[in-house]
Amino acid sequence: MIFAPLGNLTSGDVACEVSLDSLFGRHCAVLGTTGGGKSWTMAKLIEQVQIKTDNKIILVDATGEYQNLSNVEHCIVGENTYFPSSQLSNSNFCSLFREHSSNTSTILCEAINTLRLVAKGFLESGVKVGQNVADLSSTISKNLPSCINQDFNLSNLCEQVRNECIKEQNGKYVEDPFKLGYSAHLLARINLFLNNETVKSALGLSKASDAKSIIGMIDSFHGSEATVLRIGFERLSYDFAIREVVVDFIACHILRKGREGTFKGKPILLFIDEAHQFLNKRISADDDTSFYLQGIELIAKEARKYGLFLCLSTQMPRDIPLGVLSQMGTFIVHRLINEQDKKAIESAASSLNRSMLSFLPTMRAGEALLMGVDFPMPLLLRITPPVQTPQSGTPKLSKKRTCN
Question: What average pLDDT does range 334-359 have in this prediction?
Answer without folding.
Answer: 78
